[in-house]
Amino acid sequence: MKTLLGSLLVCLGLCTSVAAEQFSQGREISEMPDVLSFKERVAPINEMVTDRLDNLLPQLMREADLDMWLVVNREYGEDRLFYTLVPQPTFAARRTTILVFAKQEDGSIERFSVSRYPIGELYPTVWEGGTLQDQWQRLAEVVAERDPQRIGINISKDWALADGLSIGLHQQLVKYLPKKYEQRLVSAENLVVRWLETRSDKELNVYPQAVTIARRVIAEAFSNKVITPGATTTDDVAWYIRERFEELQLRPWFQPYVNIQRQGDDTKKDDVYMGKSDRVILPGDVLHTDVGICYLNLCTDTQEMGYVLKLGETDVPQGLKNALAIGNRWQDILTSNFKTGLTGNEILANTIKDSKAANILSSTYTHPLGFVGHASGPTIGMWDNQGPTPVQGDWPLYGNTAYAIEGNIKTQVPEWDNQWLQIKLEQGAVFDGKDVWYLAGRQTTWHVIR
Q1: Which of 93, 245, 348, 350 is the most exposed place for a label (fewest CB within 10 A)?
Q2: Cα 101 to Cα 320: distance, rounded to the nearest angstrom
Q3: Domain span at 129
Q4: The pTM is what?
Protein backbone atom coordinates (compact mmCIF):
# COMPACT_ATOMS: atom_id res chain seq x y z
CA MET A 1 0.00 0.00 0.00
CA LYS A 2 1.04 3.57 -0.56
CA THR A 3 2.41 5.47 2.40
CA LEU A 4 2.57 9.13 1.39
CA LEU A 5 -0.49 11.28 2.17
CA GLY A 6 -0.79 12.50 -1.40
CA SER A 7 -0.64 8.99 -2.76
CA LEU A 8 -3.21 7.85 -0.21
CA LEU A 9 -5.70 10.51 -1.18
CA VAL A 10 -5.15 9.95 -4.88
CA CYS A 11 -5.63 6.21 -4.41
CA LEU A 12 -8.80 6.78 -2.39
CA GLY A 13 -10.25 9.14 -4.96
CA LEU A 14 -9.36 7.08 -8.04
CA CYS A 15 -10.31 3.71 -6.58
CA THR A 16 -13.59 5.11 -5.33
CA SER A 17 -14.58 6.77 -8.60
CA VAL A 18 -13.77 3.62 -10.58
CA ALA A 19 -15.79 1.51 -8.14
CA ALA A 20 -18.78 3.85 -8.33
CA GLU A 21 -18.62 3.94 -12.13
CA GLN A 22 -18.50 0.16 -12.41
CA PHE A 23 -21.43 -0.31 -10.06
CA SER A 24 -23.49 2.45 -11.71
CA GLN A 25 -23.08 0.65 -15.02
CA GLY A 26 -24.25 -2.61 -13.48
CA ARG A 27 -20.86 -4.34 -13.50
CA GLU A 28 -19.89 -6.19 -10.35
CA ILE A 29 -16.41 -5.46 -9.01
CA SER A 30 -14.47 -8.70 -8.97
CA GLU A 31 -11.73 -7.69 -6.53
CA MET A 32 -11.69 -6.26 -3.05
CA PRO A 33 -10.51 -2.62 -3.01
CA ASP A 34 -7.39 -1.85 -1.03
CA VAL A 35 -8.14 -1.17 2.63
CA LEU A 36 -5.84 1.27 4.39
CA SER A 37 -4.10 0.19 7.57
CA PHE A 38 -4.97 1.91 10.83
CA LYS A 39 -1.84 4.04 10.53
CA GLU A 40 -2.60 4.99 6.93
CA ARG A 41 -6.15 6.05 7.83
CA VAL A 42 -5.01 8.78 10.21
CA ALA A 43 -4.00 11.32 7.56
CA PRO A 44 -7.16 11.19 5.41
CA ILE A 45 -9.45 11.11 8.45
CA ASN A 46 -7.75 14.13 9.97
CA GLU A 47 -7.88 16.00 6.69
CA MET A 48 -11.64 15.39 6.55
CA VAL A 49 -12.12 16.44 10.20
CA THR A 50 -10.11 19.64 9.70
CA ASP A 51 -12.02 20.47 6.54
CA ARG A 52 -15.35 20.06 8.34
CA LEU A 53 -14.25 22.24 11.24
CA ASP A 54 -12.90 24.97 8.97
CA ASN A 55 -15.60 25.05 6.31
CA LEU A 56 -18.76 23.33 7.52
CA LEU A 57 -18.99 24.28 11.20
CA PRO A 58 -19.12 28.09 10.63
CA GLN A 59 -22.08 27.62 8.27
CA LEU A 60 -23.93 25.35 10.67
CA MET A 61 -23.37 27.61 13.68
CA ARG A 62 -24.84 30.49 11.68
CA GLU A 63 -27.86 28.34 10.79
CA ALA A 64 -28.34 27.41 14.45
CA ASP A 65 -27.83 31.03 15.58
CA LEU A 66 -25.18 30.05 18.13
CA ASP A 67 -22.33 32.28 19.24
CA MET A 68 -20.57 29.56 21.20
CA TRP A 69 -20.74 25.78 21.44
CA LEU A 70 -19.43 23.81 24.41
CA VAL A 71 -18.67 20.08 24.15
CA VAL A 72 -17.81 18.83 27.65
CA ASN A 73 -16.54 15.29 28.29
CA ARG A 74 -15.13 13.08 30.98
CA GLU A 75 -12.83 10.14 30.42
CA TYR A 76 -14.93 6.96 29.89
CA GLY A 77 -18.10 9.04 29.73
CA GLU A 78 -17.51 10.88 26.50
CA ASP A 79 -20.18 12.60 24.47
CA ARG A 80 -20.53 10.35 21.38
CA LEU A 81 -20.22 13.51 19.29
CA PHE A 82 -16.72 14.13 20.70
CA TYR A 83 -15.20 11.52 18.38
CA THR A 84 -16.48 13.35 15.28
CA LEU A 85 -14.63 16.52 16.32
CA VAL A 86 -11.18 15.31 17.33
CA PRO A 87 -8.21 14.08 15.29
CA GLN A 88 -6.97 10.52 15.16
CA PRO A 89 -5.61 8.73 17.02
CA THR A 90 -7.89 9.82 19.88
CA PHE A 91 -9.30 7.02 22.00
CA ALA A 92 -10.80 8.95 24.91
CA ALA A 93 -11.13 12.27 26.63
CA ARG A 94 -8.34 13.01 29.09
CA ARG A 95 -9.78 13.57 32.56
CA THR A 96 -12.27 16.39 31.93
CA THR A 97 -11.92 17.65 28.36
CA ILE A 98 -13.77 20.79 27.29
CA LEU A 99 -13.93 21.87 23.66
CA VAL A 100 -14.97 25.45 22.93
CA PHE A 101 -16.14 26.80 19.58
CA ALA A 102 -16.62 30.58 19.49
CA LYS A 103 -17.97 32.57 16.55
CA GLN A 104 -15.74 35.46 15.46
CA GLU A 105 -16.84 38.78 13.98
CA ASP A 106 -15.76 37.65 10.49
CA GLY A 107 -17.88 34.49 10.79
CA SER A 108 -14.97 32.11 11.32
CA ILE A 109 -14.89 29.82 14.35
CA GLU A 110 -12.24 30.01 17.04
CA ARG A 111 -11.68 26.59 18.57
CA PHE A 112 -9.65 25.54 21.58
CA SER A 113 -9.64 23.29 24.60
CA VAL A 114 -9.96 24.21 28.25
CA SER A 115 -8.16 21.08 29.37
CA ARG A 116 -4.90 19.89 30.83
CA TYR A 117 -3.70 18.78 27.38
CA PRO A 118 -4.07 20.11 23.84
CA ILE A 119 -5.66 17.75 21.33
CA GLY A 120 -3.26 17.47 18.44
CA GLU A 121 -2.91 20.67 16.42
CA LEU A 122 -6.66 21.22 16.20
CA TYR A 123 -7.30 22.26 19.81
CA PRO A 124 -4.62 24.25 21.65
CA THR A 125 -5.40 24.54 25.34
CA VAL A 126 -5.99 27.87 27.09
CA TRP A 127 -5.59 26.45 30.59
CA GLU A 128 -2.24 26.09 32.35
CA GLY A 129 -3.40 23.35 34.68
CA GLY A 130 -4.39 23.09 38.32
CA THR A 131 -7.38 21.69 40.16
CA LEU A 132 -10.70 20.73 38.63
CA GLN A 133 -12.16 23.83 40.24
CA ASP A 134 -9.47 25.91 38.49
CA GLN A 135 -10.46 24.34 35.17
CA TRP A 136 -14.13 25.27 35.50
CA GLN A 137 -13.22 28.76 36.61
CA ARG A 138 -11.01 29.13 33.56
CA LEU A 139 -13.90 28.09 31.36
CA ALA A 140 -16.06 30.76 32.98
CA GLU A 141 -13.34 33.32 32.25
CA VAL A 142 -13.05 32.47 28.53
CA VAL A 143 -16.83 32.58 28.18
CA ALA A 144 -16.98 36.00 29.82
CA GLU A 145 -14.11 37.27 27.65
CA ARG A 146 -16.10 36.45 24.50
CA ASP A 147 -19.52 37.42 25.88
CA PRO A 148 -21.65 35.10 23.70
CA GLN A 149 -25.40 35.71 23.54
CA ARG A 150 -26.40 32.11 22.78
CA ILE A 151 -24.30 29.22 24.11
CA GLY A 152 -25.11 25.77 22.77
CA ILE A 153 -24.75 22.70 24.93
CA ASN A 154 -25.53 19.10 24.03
CA ILE A 155 -28.84 18.47 25.76
CA SER A 156 -31.88 17.10 23.95
CA LYS A 157 -35.09 15.35 24.89
CA ASP A 158 -35.58 13.76 21.48
CA TRP A 159 -32.20 13.19 19.78
CA ALA A 160 -29.87 10.72 21.50
CA LEU A 161 -26.75 11.96 19.70
CA ALA A 162 -27.53 15.56 20.71
CA ASP A 163 -27.87 14.63 24.38
CA GLY A 164 -24.27 13.86 25.25
CA LEU A 165 -23.77 16.28 28.18
CA SER A 166 -24.10 14.29 31.39
CA ILE A 167 -26.15 15.57 34.32
CA GLY A 168 -23.04 15.79 36.51
CA LEU A 169 -21.10 17.90 34.01
CA HIS A 170 -24.14 20.09 33.39
CA GLN A 171 -24.39 20.74 37.12
CA GLN A 172 -20.72 21.75 37.23
CA LEU A 173 -21.16 24.02 34.23
CA VAL A 174 -24.06 25.99 35.71
CA LYS A 175 -22.31 26.11 39.10
CA TYR A 176 -19.29 27.94 37.73
CA LEU A 177 -20.76 30.07 34.95
CA PRO A 178 -21.81 33.57 35.95
CA LYS A 179 -25.60 33.77 36.23
CA LYS A 180 -26.08 35.82 33.08
CA TYR A 181 -24.24 33.22 31.00
CA GLU A 182 -26.11 30.35 32.63
CA GLN A 183 -29.28 32.01 31.35
CA ARG A 184 -27.83 32.06 27.83
CA LEU A 185 -27.38 28.28 27.67
CA VAL A 186 -29.55 26.68 24.99
CA SER A 187 -29.83 23.26 23.41
CA ALA A 188 -27.41 22.76 20.51
CA GLU A 189 -29.70 20.07 19.10
CA ASN A 190 -30.19 21.67 15.66
CA LEU A 191 -26.46 22.23 15.25
CA VAL A 192 -25.63 18.68 16.35
CA VAL A 193 -28.13 17.03 13.99
CA ARG A 194 -26.94 19.12 11.06
CA TRP A 195 -23.28 18.45 11.93
CA LEU A 196 -23.88 14.73 12.08
CA GLU A 197 -26.03 14.43 8.95
CA THR A 198 -24.10 16.69 6.56
CA ARG A 199 -21.48 15.04 4.37
CA SER A 200 -18.59 17.12 3.05
CA ASP A 201 -17.19 16.82 -0.46
CA LYS A 202 -14.09 15.12 0.91
CA GLU A 203 -16.21 12.54 2.72
CA LEU A 204 -18.29 11.88 -0.37
CA ASN A 205 -15.09 11.24 -2.30
CA VAL A 206 -14.26 8.28 -0.04
CA TYR A 207 -17.68 7.06 1.14
CA PRO A 208 -18.13 4.79 -1.93
CA GLN A 209 -14.97 2.95 -0.84
CA ALA A 210 -16.57 1.89 2.44
CA VAL A 211 -19.80 0.77 0.77
CA THR A 212 -17.89 -1.09 -1.96
CA ILE A 213 -15.97 -3.06 0.67
CA ALA A 214 -19.19 -4.04 2.44
CA ARG A 215 -20.77 -5.17 -0.83
CA ARG A 216 -17.71 -7.18 -1.84
CA VAL A 217 -17.67 -9.06 1.46
CA ILE A 218 -21.34 -9.94 0.95
CA ALA A 219 -20.49 -11.17 -2.56
CA GLU A 220 -17.75 -13.38 -1.09
CA ALA A 221 -20.07 -14.70 1.59
CA PHE A 222 -22.85 -15.49 -0.88
CA SER A 223 -20.63 -17.66 -3.07
CA ASN A 224 -19.24 -21.19 -3.18
CA LYS A 225 -16.09 -19.87 -1.59
CA VAL A 226 -18.02 -19.86 1.68
CA ILE A 227 -21.18 -21.90 1.15
CA THR A 228 -21.37 -25.63 0.58
CA PRO A 229 -25.07 -26.48 0.22
CA GLY A 230 -26.11 -29.16 2.65
CA ALA A 231 -23.29 -28.40 5.08
CA THR A 232 -22.92 -24.65 5.68
CA THR A 233 -25.31 -22.97 8.12
CA THR A 234 -26.60 -19.42 8.21
CA ASP A 235 -24.56 -18.89 11.37
CA ASP A 236 -21.41 -20.03 9.56
CA VAL A 237 -21.97 -17.39 6.89
CA ALA A 238 -22.71 -14.66 9.42
CA TRP A 239 -19.47 -15.39 11.25
CA TYR A 240 -17.52 -15.52 8.00
CA ILE A 241 -18.71 -11.97 7.30
CA ARG A 242 -17.78 -10.82 10.80
CA GLU A 243 -14.35 -12.42 10.70
CA ARG A 244 -13.67 -11.15 7.17
CA PHE A 245 -14.30 -7.61 8.33
CA GLU A 246 -12.02 -8.14 11.30
CA GLU A 247 -9.34 -9.51 8.96
CA LEU A 248 -9.60 -6.27 6.96
CA GLN A 249 -9.26 -4.29 10.23
CA LEU A 250 -12.80 -2.97 9.87
CA ARG A 251 -15.25 -2.45 12.69
CA PRO A 252 -18.74 -3.90 12.33
CA TRP A 253 -21.26 -1.77 14.19
CA PHE A 254 -23.59 -4.74 14.63
CA GLN A 255 -23.28 -8.50 14.35
CA PRO A 256 -24.02 -9.59 10.75
CA TYR A 257 -26.91 -11.96 10.32
CA VAL A 258 -28.13 -14.31 7.62
CA ASN A 259 -31.53 -15.92 7.15
CA ILE A 260 -33.32 -18.23 4.73
CA GLN A 261 -36.66 -18.24 2.94
CA ARG A 262 -37.45 -21.70 1.60
CA GLN A 263 -40.10 -23.17 -0.64
CA GLY A 264 -42.70 -24.80 1.60
CA ASP A 265 -42.31 -22.28 4.45
CA ASP A 266 -45.63 -21.20 5.93
CA THR A 267 -45.57 -17.54 4.85
CA LYS A 268 -48.50 -15.15 4.67
CA LYS A 269 -49.10 -11.83 2.95
CA ASP A 270 -49.36 -9.97 6.24
CA ASP A 271 -46.16 -11.40 7.78
CA VAL A 272 -43.96 -8.52 8.91
CA TYR A 273 -40.79 -10.55 8.55
CA MET A 274 -40.11 -13.64 6.46
CA GLY A 275 -37.00 -15.76 6.86
CA LYS A 276 -35.44 -18.02 9.47
CA SER A 277 -31.90 -18.30 10.76
CA ASP A 278 -30.27 -21.31 12.43
CA ARG A 279 -30.70 -23.36 9.27
CA VAL A 280 -28.46 -25.50 7.10
CA ILE A 281 -28.37 -23.94 3.63
CA LEU A 282 -29.96 -26.17 0.98
CA PRO A 283 -30.40 -26.00 -2.80
CA GLY A 284 -33.37 -23.78 -3.69
CA ASP A 285 -32.95 -21.50 -0.67
CA VAL A 286 -33.27 -17.72 -0.82
CA LEU A 287 -30.65 -16.08 1.39
CA HIS A 288 -30.66 -12.62 2.95
CA THR A 289 -28.00 -10.80 4.95
CA ASP A 290 -27.71 -7.49 6.78
CA VAL A 291 -24.23 -6.07 7.50
CA GLY A 292 -22.72 -2.78 8.59
CA ILE A 293 -19.16 -1.51 8.94
CA CYS A 294 -17.41 1.78 9.69
CA TYR A 295 -14.35 2.83 7.68
CA LEU A 296 -12.65 6.24 7.56
CA ASN A 297 -15.21 7.38 10.17
CA LEU A 298 -18.13 6.62 7.82
CA CYS A 299 -20.61 3.81 8.43
CA THR A 300 -22.48 1.56 6.02
CA ASP A 301 -25.67 -0.51 6.26
CA THR A 302 -26.32 -3.06 3.50
CA GLN A 303 -28.83 -5.84 2.84
CA GLU A 304 -28.68 -8.14 -0.18
CA MET A 305 -30.24 -11.38 -1.44
CA GLY A 306 -28.78 -14.67 -2.72
CA TYR A 307 -30.12 -17.84 -4.30
CA VAL A 308 -28.80 -21.43 -4.12
CA LEU A 309 -29.33 -23.24 -7.42
CA LYS A 310 -31.14 -26.56 -7.34
CA LEU A 311 -29.66 -29.61 -9.03
CA GLY A 312 -30.11 -29.12 -12.77
CA GLU A 313 -30.74 -25.37 -12.53
CA THR A 314 -28.41 -23.05 -14.43
CA ASP A 315 -30.12 -19.77 -13.55
CA VAL A 316 -32.29 -18.12 -10.94
CA PRO A 317 -36.03 -18.84 -11.48
CA GLN A 318 -37.82 -16.07 -13.36
CA GLY A 319 -40.24 -15.53 -10.49
CA LEU A 320 -37.33 -14.61 -8.22
CA LYS A 321 -35.85 -12.32 -10.86
CA ASN A 322 -39.21 -10.59 -11.15
CA ALA A 323 -39.38 -10.24 -7.36
CA LEU A 324 -35.98 -8.51 -7.21
CA ALA A 325 -37.05 -6.20 -10.04
CA ILE A 326 -40.10 -5.20 -7.98
CA GLY A 327 -37.74 -4.40 -5.10
CA ASN A 328 -35.69 -2.18 -7.40
CA ARG A 329 -38.89 -0.49 -8.59
CA TRP A 330 -39.82 0.24 -4.97
CA GLN A 331 -36.37 1.79 -4.45
CA ASP A 332 -36.96 4.02 -7.48
CA ILE A 333 -40.32 5.15 -6.12
CA LEU A 334 -38.78 5.97 -2.74
CA THR A 335 -35.80 7.90 -4.09
CA SER A 336 -37.97 9.81 -6.59
CA ASN A 337 -39.78 11.27 -3.59
CA PHE A 338 -36.60 12.76 -2.12
CA LYS A 339 -37.20 16.52 -2.37
CA THR A 340 -35.32 19.16 -0.43
CA GLY A 341 -37.44 20.47 2.42
CA LEU A 342 -39.88 17.56 2.59
CA THR A 343 -39.96 15.82 5.96
CA GLY A 344 -39.26 12.15 6.44
CA ASN A 345 -42.96 11.62 7.19
CA GLU A 346 -43.97 13.33 3.94
CA ILE A 347 -41.51 11.25 1.90
CA LEU A 348 -42.88 8.10 3.54
CA ALA A 349 -46.50 9.01 2.84
CA ASN A 350 -45.71 9.81 -0.80
CA THR A 351 -43.79 6.54 -1.20
CA ILE A 352 -46.65 4.49 0.24
CA LYS A 353 -49.14 6.23 -2.04
CA ASP A 354 -47.01 5.72 -5.16
CA SER A 355 -46.20 2.10 -4.28
CA LYS A 356 -49.88 1.26 -3.86
CA ALA A 357 -50.62 2.91 -7.21
CA ALA A 358 -47.98 0.62 -8.75
CA ASN A 359 -49.51 -2.44 -6.98
CA ILE A 360 -46.35 -2.95 -4.95
CA LEU A 361 -46.75 -4.30 -1.42
CA SER A 362 -43.89 -2.56 0.33
CA SER A 363 -42.61 -1.45 3.71
CA THR A 364 -40.22 1.50 4.00
CA TYR A 365 -37.83 2.08 6.89
CA THR A 366 -35.02 4.26 5.59
CA HIS A 367 -32.61 6.09 7.88
CA PRO A 368 -29.64 8.46 7.63
CA LEU A 369 -26.06 7.18 7.52
CA GLY A 370 -22.88 8.89 8.63
CA PHE A 371 -20.59 8.72 11.65
CA VAL A 372 -22.89 6.01 13.02
CA GLY A 373 -25.10 3.52 11.24
CA HIS A 374 -28.42 4.78 12.57
CA ALA A 375 -27.53 8.42 12.22
CA SER A 376 -29.35 11.67 12.95
CA GLY A 377 -31.60 13.22 10.33
CA PRO A 378 -35.03 12.45 8.86
CA THR A 379 -36.52 9.07 9.67
CA ILE A 380 -38.45 7.77 6.65
CA GLY A 381 -40.67 5.09 8.18
CA MET A 382 -39.85 2.34 10.66
CA TRP A 383 -40.27 -1.41 10.24
CA ASP A 384 -42.88 -1.43 13.01
CA ASN A 385 -44.49 1.91 12.11
CA GLN A 386 -45.52 2.78 8.57
CA GLY A 387 -47.15 5.99 9.77
CA PRO A 388 -45.69 9.29 10.98
CA THR A 389 -42.73 9.19 13.36
CA PRO A 390 -42.79 12.16 15.76
CA VAL A 391 -39.81 14.53 15.81
CA GLN A 392 -37.29 12.48 13.78
CA GLY A 393 -39.87 11.96 11.04
CA ASP A 394 -40.65 15.67 11.07
CA TRP A 395 -37.04 16.61 10.30
CA PRO A 396 -36.68 18.05 6.76
CA LEU A 397 -34.50 16.64 4.02
CA TYR A 398 -31.29 18.56 3.29
CA GLY A 399 -28.79 18.15 0.48
CA ASN A 400 -25.42 16.47 0.97
CA THR A 401 -26.87 13.86 3.30
CA ALA A 402 -26.51 10.07 3.14
CA TYR A 403 -29.09 7.34 3.67
CA ALA A 404 -29.57 3.61 3.89
CA ILE A 405 -32.31 3.07 1.30
CA GLU A 406 -33.94 0.33 3.35
CA GLY A 407 -37.19 -1.57 3.11
CA ASN A 408 -38.84 -4.62 1.62
CA ILE A 409 -41.46 -5.78 -0.84
CA LYS A 410 -43.60 -8.91 -0.71
CA THR A 411 -44.76 -10.83 -3.74
CA GLN A 412 -45.86 -14.32 -4.75
CA VAL A 413 -43.54 -16.68 -6.61
CA PRO A 414 -45.17 -18.85 -9.30
CA GLU A 415 -42.38 -21.46 -9.13
CA TRP A 416 -43.09 -21.82 -5.41
CA ASP A 417 -46.83 -22.49 -5.86
CA ASN A 418 -47.48 -18.75 -5.35
CA GLN A 419 -45.84 -18.78 -1.91
CA TRP A 420 -45.21 -15.31 -0.51
CA LEU A 421 -41.60 -14.12 -0.64
CA GLN A 422 -39.98 -11.05 0.87
CA ILE A 423 -37.23 -9.12 -0.91
CA LYS A 424 -35.28 -7.16 1.70
CA LEU A 425 -32.93 -4.52 0.28
CA GLU A 426 -30.70 -1.84 1.74
CA GLN A 427 -28.07 0.24 -0.05
CA GLY A 428 -26.08 3.34 0.88
CA ALA A 429 -26.92 6.46 -1.12
CA VAL A 430 -26.40 10.22 -1.04
CA PHE A 431 -28.94 12.96 -1.74
CA ASP A 432 -27.16 15.91 -3.37
CA GLY A 433 -30.11 18.30 -3.00
CA LYS A 434 -31.64 17.25 -6.30
CA ASP A 435 -30.94 13.59 -7.03
CA VAL A 436 -30.20 10.39 -5.12
CA TRP A 437 -27.01 8.54 -6.07
CA TYR A 438 -26.10 5.07 -4.83
CA LEU A 439 -22.66 5.27 -3.30
CA ALA A 440 -21.53 1.95 -4.77
CA GLY A 441 -24.42 0.89 -6.96
CA ARG A 442 -27.25 -1.37 -5.83
CA GLN A 443 -28.18 -5.02 -6.18
CA THR A 444 -30.10 -5.63 -9.40
CA THR A 445 -29.13 -9.29 -9.93
CA TRP A 446 -29.08 -12.22 -7.52
CA HIS A 447 -25.98 -13.54 -5.84
CA VAL A 448 -25.86 -17.15 -7.07
CA ILE A 449 -24.50 -20.13 -5.17
CA ARG A 450 -24.08 -23.33 -7.21
Answers
A1: 350
A2: 54
A3: 39-187
A4: 0.91
